[in-house]
Amino acid sequence: MSIKTYTMRYLLVLIPLLIVSCASESNRASKQEEAVNQLRKDLDALFNEKIKADEPGAALMVAYDGALLVGKGYGLRNLETKTPITASTNMRLASVSKQFTALTVLALVDEGKLKLSDDIDSYLALDNFKGVTIEQLINHTSGLADAEAAFFYPSVWDPTKTAVNADILPWYDTGHKKVNAPGKVWQYNNGAYELIPLIVEKVSGESFDAYAKKVLNKAGMKDSNFFDPTRPVEISERANCYQKDQNGDWQQVDGHFLNGLLGAGGLYTNVNDFFRYDQALRNEEILTRKSHQLIFQESANSGERGYGMGWFLGTDYADHSGGWMGTNTYTKRWFGQPLTYAIFMNSNTMGEKELVQETNKILYAFYKAMEEISK
What we know:
Radius of gyration: 24 Å
Oligomer: single chain
Structural class: alpha+beta
């Protein structure tokens, strides 16, 4: 058989295969586009049903395989000016801030300035801190009492004054402040996370918000900041926080006296920044590879759900919620699919749990559809 004849026969076999392959890829792309359009339609219907256009609302982000599928707002960020929430509106994250606080510690680990196994009394010299490690602060197994919970009592703190992180040290220096042995029992603890900024400041030589800003910038979060009301920085397109009073009227509640306690909360970010952060996290671009792998590693004795570095851990996903005065937030990222979503709300009286549950159902259906299409 001549080379020319063999080549012709080879092409006669190959060309139909290529045509079938192209048709298959085209069909797959068409199904993916259909699934994305259905996702957007379902989410729009849900959020427009739950959120009134003239009330506080929510910012929504859905990212899939490196693309921002949904990035938009519902409702208002400012009731007086009637300014709507958009993808660039900066929203207070409440406890979703914890994952970013953990990043500041891991960044200092990468710099060789501290170790997760360090006892915190090496940096904050109090007897009550002996035997408690930095890692235990992060994963809620410090055994310490929660200072933030105590600061709600007027006998502990004067609510006419704004508390800052340094103010909790005298409280931890009085009485016996260990409720469990360090490392033995998981107990969610905002006060422990409010000790972390003090350690970051001691080690970095900078204010916590300034050092955290460097880490946020590395994550692509150029418009995001930890906000200290005693030393305020400009936050563009900042959403006001609201909750209803006893008469059912919306009241702005940004001036709470515990808003100066950073670490457990206090971060403002927007949908666009959070998308860039999600991609940097997935691509392991913020920290060293070793530190990135620690983020979603379950810590010892971390409770029924499991807890890593500022994230609750499921079998195939990580998530975290946040709730504070005029704030409700939630974010979830799957490991089996490159899918992440986040909801940031500037109200804490709008049925957050129901909204999250319904969003989870819609996103799970999308997850399974994309999984089936990719087979």
